[in-house]
Amino acid sequence: MKRTDGMARREFLKLVAATGALSLPVFRHSEVLGANWPTKPIRMTVQYAVGGGTDIFCRGFAHAMEEPLGGTIEVGNMPGSVGAIATDFILKKPADGYSWLAASNFSKFLRPMGYHKSVPYKDWQWFAIAISYMGWAVKPESPFKTMADVIDASKKKPVTMSHSGVGGIWHEGDGLLARAAGVKFNYVPYKGGAPAVLAALQGEVDVASCGIHEQIEFLRTGKMRNLAIFLEEPMTVDGITFQPITKYVPGAKPFTPFTADATIGLRRETPLEILKAVHKAYLIAAKNARFAEVLKKNVGSPQVLTPLESDKRAAFKECVTATIFEELGIAKIKRSDLGLPSPEEFEKWWPPKDYKPRLT
């Protein structure tokens, strides 16, 4: 009986070896999963309105990703609550690589503003694609000829400024400017930078406060006039010279350059082989000539980070924003309650004990 069992076992192992059954563990399954993905269109959800910076850059990058991925990426918009609505929507989708989030600044605002509990460096695998610059613009007939006029007027009565949402990137920039200048502004939130620009054009607000990429077409055609850009040095684009904010508010220098990041996020628990496939396509898309034209046209600069750099950048930016919002009195949740260090303590804190890298 024992001999019969032994023979049966040997015969079984021979059969396994012959058929290759032992070569089908989970590792091979994940490889096949990555190789066969995608088999249907990917859906990218932009957390802001059509025409804003996040929308423009992420749409352009999505097109550049399609060829190296070997699939189709469909893009839709779901604005609201500075990206919280789209964020929640994607996090409730299966982590199968078919639902992507097109976000601004690694969604660093959501926890400090109490909009969402997701943790940027724990719940997302980010792919940084571009940076853009903050600027202030008015209609040609505006009485504000320079940013100095805006600052002077705000000392008597708060000037109204449109931006992309309470607790968003441009709200943060305005808060830093107001702090440096010692004035107050009357903020009027909109669901994205593009609606914020239209608000100024239609006379709903005095100044459009958003990304240069969201103003540039109106600046080129003379329908808007730039007052300043959140940099330390002048910048010239298509014959238009943007004056640095430090010319008018020297105290803003420590915060320059103040830029926005366009970022694409996948749920962090997405199968590793799919994340690897996305990262490989990401590196190829970053060199795409058509995407380079999108950047040039919209006054953006490319940004390519390693996965580990993206994780660290996401955490650091959330620390900075949580600190600034708390100082400005607009944070709903304190930085310490979020378990975050101060920006000065960040290097000693990173990586935290609960950090687990997915891609290296």
Helices and strands, with pairings:
Blueprint: H1 2-19, H2 26-36, E1 42-46, H3 53-69, E2 73-77, H4 84-91, E3 99-104, H5 120-123, E4 124-138, H6 147-154, E5 159-163, H7 169-181, E6 185-189, H8 193-201, E7 207-211, H9 212-220, E8 225-229, E9 235-237, E10 240-242, E11 259-267, H10 272-285, H11 289-297, E12 301-302, H12 307-328, H13 346-349
Parallel strand pairs: 1-2, 1-3, 5-6, 5-7
Antiparallel strand pairs: 3-11, 4-7, 4-8, 4-11, 4-12, 9-10
Descriptive report:
- The chain has 360 residues and is α/β, with parallel strands linked by helices.
- It folds into three domains: 2-33, no CATH class; 38-132 and 261-349, Bordetella uptake gene, domain 1 (D-Maltodextrin-Binding Protein, domain 2, 3-Layer(aba) Sandwich), CATH 3.40.190; 133-255, Periplasmic binding protein-like II (D-Maltodextrin-Binding Protein, domain 2, 3-Layer(aba) Sandwich).
- The chain contains 13 helices and twelve strands.
- Strands 1, 2, 3, 4, 5, 6, 7, 8, 11 and 12 form a ten-stranded mixed sheet that branches.
- Helix 7 (169-181) links the parallel strand 5 and strand 6 (185-189).
- Helix 3 packs across helix 10, helix 3 runs antiparallel to helix 11 (289-297) and helix 7 packs across helix 12.
- 46% of the residues are buried.
What key attributes describe this structure?
360 residues; alpha/beta; D-Maltodextrin-Binding Protein, domain 2; 10-stranded mixed β-sheet; 12 strands; two-stranded antiparallel sheet; 3 domains; 13 helices; globular; disordered N terminus
